[in-house]
Amino acid sequence: MKVYDGDGYILGRLSSVIAKDLLNGENVILLNAEKLFITGSKKDIFNKYLKRRQIKSHQNPEHSPKWPRKPDLLVRRIIRGMLPYKKPRGKIAFRKLKVYIGVPEKLKQFSEKSVTVERARVKDGQKGIDIGKLCQMFGYQINNPIQNK
Questions:
Q1: What pLDDT, in 10s, does the model give residues 89-146?
Q2: Partners of 57 in the beta sheet?
Q3: Comparing C-alpha atoms, which of 120, 141, 105 is closest to residue 7?
């Protein structure tokens, strides 16, 4: 089992490493999915994912592709795009992926042992946006336990 911490990593580069691990038969856990970083212009990134969310089939809108607002589900969907999902090998690999927002209590001991991927690190001054902020722009509300009390 491999554990990755998404804090300070570029989404696409880390996702490609995770996809290869999944295809090699590893169980993968990704923590802090909302802190993954997408590089580029914020406006371009927002427009790209807005267009993806707006794609609808005119004949049957229920059969349209689904793009979630929740950060962990969005990251899972992006990693699924890097797998041969429609083939048995890809489906088995995708089932071995667990993605979490933050670090759950039951996985605290694994967070210190997370794998590092140097080529996927965010460089200082790099333009882009966090997955959490992108999802907030689409209407996702991050539950803050302090606000709920």
A1: 999 999 999 999 999 988 888 777 889 999 999 999 999 999 999 999 988 987 654 4
A2: none
A3: 120
Assigned superfamily of 2-148: Ribosomal protein L13 (3.90.1180.10)
Strand partners, 143: none
Q: Which two tokens stand for residue 116?
A: 């590092």
Six-digit token string for 115: 């794998």
Distance separating alpha carbons of residues 47 and 59, to the nearest angstrom:
25
User: Three-class SS string for 13-71?
Assistant: HHHHHHHHHHHCCCCEEEECHHHCEEECCHHHHHHHHHHHHHCCCCCCHHHCCCCCCCH
Distances (CA, A) of 54 to 51, 62, 78: 5, 13, 17
Instruction: Check: pTM over 0.90? Answer yes or no.
Output: no
